[in-house]
Amino acid sequence: MSDLTPATAATSVLAVLGEQQGTGVLLTPTLVLTSAHVLGGARSATAAAPHRAVPGRLSVVWSDDRLDAALLQSGHLLGVPPLFSALATDRPIPGCEIVGFPRIQRYEGQKPDVDQFTGTVLPMAGLLRRTLTVELDHPPVTGTEDGPSPLAGLSGAPVLADGRLLGIVRAVPRGRGHRRLECVPLTAVLADEEVRRWLPPDVAPPVRITGTHPHDRPYEEEYAEAVGASYRRTRIFGLDELGKRASQWDLDTAYLSLEAASRTPGSPDRVPQRIDDLLASRPRVLLRGDAGAGKTTLVWWLAAHAAAGTLGPNLAELNGLVPFVVPLRTLRARGNGYPSPAELARVSGLMIDPAPEGWAGRVLNAGRGLLLVDGLDEVPAEEREAAHTWLSQLLARYPRTRCVATVRPFAVAPDWLGSEQFEELALLPLRDADIQAFVAAWHAAARLDGDPDRNLADLERDLAQQFRHNRALADLARTPLLCAVICALHRLREGFLPETRWALYSSALHLLLGVRDEQRGIRTPDGIGMTVDEHTELLQRLAAWLVRGGQTEFTREQALHQLARALPGMPRVAAQGTPEQILTHLLNRSGLLQERTDGVFQFAHRTFQDFLAAKELVEDDQLKEALRHAHDQQWHDVLLLAAGHCTRRDLPTLVEGLLTAGSATRKRDLKTTLYVLAALAAQHAAWLDGALHGRVRKAVKSVIPPRNTEQVGQLARLGGYVLPLLPGPAEVSREAIGTIVHLVFTIGGREALPYARAFAEAGEADRFSGVWSQFPLEAYAREIAPHLTPDAPIMVTGVEQLRHLPDHPSVHLYGDFEAPELLSGLSGRRLRFLGLAQNTRLTGLGFLSGVDCARLTGLYLSRCPRLTDLTAVARLSALAYLRIGGVPDSAGTLDLTPLHDLPHVIVNITSFPRKQILGAAALGDRLTVE
Fold first, then answer.
1. Shortest CA distance to 441 belongs to which of 492, 493, 480?
2. Stated pTM of the model
3. Cα–Cα distance for residue pair 571/203, rounded to 1 Å
4. Is residue 30 within 8 Å of 19, Cβ to Cβ?
5. How far, rounded to the nearest angstrom, does the alpha carbon of residue 110 sit from its chain's CA centroid?
6. CA 363 to CA 365: how far, in whole Å?
7. Which residues contact 140 (CB under 8 A, 6 or more apart)?
8. What Rg value do the Cα atoms of the chain yield, rounded?
9. Distance of CA 432 to CAs 409, 467, 477, 692, 821, Å?
10. Are 414 and 706 in contact (CB under 8 A)?
């Protein structure tokens, strides 16, 4: 993770072959800085590097003989540049490096080879001449005072302090035994306005250097290994619980790239996309997701891969960043305050020695930190302002730090971190295709561990089939956790599955607490034998204590205290061992408790904690206590899960209590949430008094129409229940119609289609143009699309939609469609507008030759990094407006020459470096570049 480790030095430093041999260092992946005298006035040069090819000639785009510095531009990606730095002291800085290609250093007899020198930067030595002076630690072994310098060829070589670029070598003065190097400071090069035009607008400013820290780089390598050891493996529910040899699996086996959507008002990315794509362009993200939605798994995956530098192209910017994972639940369990920068490396319990003094601050100050704050909802509501203050102050002190924070959907207010430039994303429920992918991954993990079950493949096929044809079952599996539970139970029960969420959790607990050891013939492996009910009794008491205290983690001493209070009422269990022995048994045998860090424990998932706490509260006749916390978001899942434990006598108490709490608050968001919880609890009842059902419906109807997206999200949890309560198109005000339509398409599916059609027929069809994926494909094309106005583009996000595309003149396609798919889906249609977004595969628009574009007046290309060939646009004679947005591949250029024959087209280009745009002058004021 260091800025310029030996692995990256090989791709950051090049031999430059101009009028003489020299060295160059990358400022960007395509821009090389070298000494001007190496080029000797030439307008191009070649470059070389050991053991890899450097394609083509490099063009000289800037040169300054006074500075003795020049820039070379390549049309290809050449490597990874180091970070920039600047001197901020007049004291000597030892431990600096010079890496370059001296002429005497060769391999295989003639090829330039890299060499490395160490030395001390002397800030005062070149002060009057405004140069950078380096004194080498040792003289070159072949040097003579009056002979040619053994360092010839080092001109242009980078001077590095802690891996950051301070300047480049330009001369070796005589009379110093070849130990002094005269260098050009990087700050002098960056001061030139023309140089800055060749750099990306968001290039990080130079880090101020006051000294070197030789222990930082080795520590970062050790830290990366510790992060990988801690976060590279995870538990997969239902595999170790069924007696597998291993208790953890490689995270990549278990990781599923989830879908998410922006929750930031006005964002162009409201269309669902893979979370990897959305994180790429957002330095700071508040990620909302339900219990079991995969938030923590994503945090672990990001940490492990960022530390190892193995993230794919979309998230390549994060490779090499130093991840700091801050699990807020662990801080709560330990009673610790929020960490200072110096404490970040140890707060997640990594097995690693203390960091060098000031290391974390230096990492954050250099903009190389990736802060991963997991579980803001784990902080009690009254303490969240302190959490907000801590995070705000940390990011204000280190403003270039990238950050991802996770939270339950409604735990904090909308835009809670907006003042810190956070964008909000929401993890979405698994789609049917995601469920199928998860089923395949779960069974693949079972096979990787040498599963002896011969019918595993048959079970996988059967479960995949059940998910395809049983909509109720698929609706139970919309989070990775629940999907894993279903996989495990399906295998255990040879294909038979529970039908409700509560039955699913209950069956999972029986699987964990009893069935596993019974199947394996294990009775009392540690001398303690407990029934499922006895296990449950102890665990639910512990869970209720955690919920009451607003915690999710506990220490051994805290657990022993709770067991000591419970065991006197369980003489059969107490007779078998001490509280310490009973706790050890629960940790070893229950499968529900796990050690998170040394001496700190938690339930395998928060959902099981809440489920057991709800059971304890109901059985202990403490529903009224739970209802007193109805205003606290941390209790909402507990209250909802309590419905599954309630008897016919208890359930009305719960429903009425939620209605009463809702009517008592003036906060519309909270009122909506509590009425929705009451309705969900009432839906669970096998029987509930009709009058109480009526009160619930009336309460829910009173918070319709919703006033914001939070309320829409809450009401959508009721699914089809809420649809008959909605006002029709003629009954709703113009101000509220937007949120009603939003609620309809958020619920989506076949049962929402008649309501969507009613609004479409009433002139509101355009509000549904971007949500085709929310409804059955053919039914939407038949019942909604015909009512769209011609200028409202239909949003297409999948190949199956493309196959069912209705005859509509405006189409916007999101995602990686191949040219043959586009040709097949669009041929025969008379297009007026076409949009292409988030397509990383398409390189040109040649497919348009097979599409009727005689009336195509608008073309929109967004975030299609490889789509820089506009040759086909020349044939679009009716084109009036072309918009191109998004950063291209760093080596790509955009040639606007094909547009010169379109005299009326207006072109708008955003987020595309002007220097990479060709043929712009001929368009005059018809072109704007932002």
1. 480
2. 0.70
3. 68
4. no
5. 47
6. 6
7. 149, 150, 151, 178
8. 32
9. 22, 8, 9, 36, 22
10. no
Tokens encoding 704: 């319709």
Kindly state the tokens that stand for 138. Answer: 């040792």
Element (H, E) at 421: none
Output the DSSP codes for 244-284.
-S-S-EEHHHH----EEEE-STT-TT-S-EEHHHHHHT-SE
**What CA–CA distance (Å, rounded) separates 313 from 471?**
36
Half-sphere exposure of 515 (CA within 13 A, CB side): 16
Give CA–CA dist 848/834, Å, rounded.
10
Rounded to whole angstroms, how far apart are CA atoms 715 and 705?
10
Q: How far, in Å, CA of 29 to CA of 42, rounded?
A: 22
Residue range 677-730, pLDDT digits in tens: 999 999 888 888 999 999 999 999 999 999 998 999 999 999 899 999 999 999
Q: Look at strands 833-837 and 810-814 and give their pairing.
A: parallel
Find out whether 212 and 85 touch, Cβ atoms under 8 Å: no
- Predicted local distance difference test score (pLDDT) of residue 610: 93
Contact 834, 856 (CB under 8 A): yes
Q: Which residues contact 890 (CB under 8 A, 6 or more apart)?
A: 28, 29, 30, 77
Q: Give the 3-state secondary structure of residue 593.
A: strand
Distance CA 263, CA 286 (A): 10
Asked if residues 284 and 207 have their Cβ atoms less than 8 Å apart, the reply is no
Rounded to 5 degrees, what angle do the CA atoms 280, 286, 292 make? 100
Specify the 3-state DSSP secondary structure of 119.
strand
340: amino acid identity, one letter: S
Three-class SS state of 777: helix
Taking residue 80's Cβ as centre, other Cβ atoms within 10 Å add up to: 20
Q: What are phi and psi of 862, to 5 degrees?
A: -130, 125
End-to-end CA, the chain: 34
Q: Pick from 304, 328, 329: which is nearest to 318 by CA? A: 304
- The residue-averaged pLDDT of 62-80 equals 90
> CA-to-CA distance for 586 and 742, rounded, in angstroms?
47
Q: How far apart are CA 864 and CA 650, in angstroms?
A: 57
